[in-house]
Write a structure and sequence with these properties.
By secondary structure, the protein is of the alpha+beta class. It is built from 4 helices and 6 strands; from the N terminus they run ααβαβαββββ.
């Protein structure tokens, strides 16, 4: 079973709707992913600005035009969630996300089986 957040998050990504994707994230985002490193955006794999996050997501959607996330599991916590899904190129992904007081994601740690 998926929460409302997860359903909307997956739909936005699978529809490649950048505006809807960005609606989930706060201005004070702390987003860490090895894909950020792989794409040469930041050597530490970190983005801490919503505008830069939007540019990264836009670039990723262009690089992976067939991107589709296949949902596997959702693990809920106190003010956080871990989404486990099949990602680009068949890799498995687990994303840990925390929400701020306004219900927007302000911290993400993405993990992949291969990048």
């Amino acid at each position: 079973m998926k929460t409302d957040f997860t359903q909307k998050w997956l739909k936005a990504w699978n529809d490649h709707n950048l505006n809807e994707i960005m609606e989930h994230y706060s201005e004070d985002i702390d987003f860490v992913s090895p894909i950020i490193q792989q794409m040469g955006i930041d050597p530490k794999g970190r983005i801490s600005d919503k505008g830069k996050l939007r540019a990264y997501f836009s670039q990723a959607l262009q690089k992976y035009p067939d991107l589709h996330f296949e949902f596997h599991h959702e693990l809920t916590g106190a003010g956080s969630v871990v989404l486990y899904y099949k990602s680009v190129n068949g890799s498995l992904s687990a994303e840990y996300m925390e929400w701020n007081g306004n219900g927007k994601v302000n911290k993400v740690r993405a993990h992949y089986t291969k990048v």
